[in-house]
Design brief:
Blueprint lengths: L1 H19 L26 E8 L5 E7 L1 H9 L9 E11 L1 H7 L5 E14 L10 E7 L8 H4 L2 H5 L15
Antiparallel strand pairs: 1-2, 2-3, 3-4, 4-5
Length: 174
């Protein structure tokens, strides 16, 4: 009986620590060059917009998350996105799951491996008018900006083909 009571207390303490710890792990860190964007506090608790697997050189899996403004605009199919919209793309290496494959009896399962980076798009139509109202940032797995200014200058030209979607590639996957 004492073991069960101890176990219940340990679980309660673990839950308390998990739910009171900061969600972001990287907030209030360094700002990315050019656009001055920092990783927003609580971004890991944002809602899921979509997921993707990028093959080739990247070979990663990605979760695209949005703040409340982004999710509202996606759900209402409202373009352009309003100022204050932030879209986060989190990437991990795409690796086989030996544990899952043992259960399935064959190699078929892939999961998120080591983290790769975090990319952000933030909307402020007056601040970033020259780039369609969007600011761009990329951070390494530890939350440090990891793209030099020259590389960040390539973000908007890459997004220009998606002008009809307010320069956003990702479609909402409800």
């Amino acid at each position: 009986m004492k073991r069960i009571a101890f176990l219940l207390i340990a679980i309660a303490v673990a839950c308390l620590v998990a739910f009171t710890a900061p969600a972001s792990g990287h907030a209030d860190g360094e700002a990315a060059p050019i656009f001055g964007i920092k990783i927003p506090s609580g971004y890991r608790d944002w809602k899921l917009i979509s997921v993707a697997h990028e093959a080739g050189n990247n070979n990663d899996i990605r979760a695209v998350l949005g703040n409340d403004a982004a999710i509202k605009a996606y759900r209402e199919q409202k373009l352009p996105f309003p100022d204050g919209t932030i879209i986060a793309r989190l990437a991990w290496r795409y690796v086989p799951s030996e544990e899952n494959n043992k259960v399935f009896g064959r190699a078929q399962s892939f999961v998120a491996g080591p983290p790769v980076n975090i990319q952000l798009m933030a909307k402020d139509s007056s601040k970033w008018a020259a780039t369609g109202g969007w600011g761009f940032a990329q951070f390494d797995k530890d939350g440090k900006p990891n793209l030099p200014e020259a590389s960040l200058k390539t973000c908007f030209p890459c997004h220009e083909p998606s002008k009809a979607g307010d320069f956003v590639f990702t479609h909402y996957a409800p």
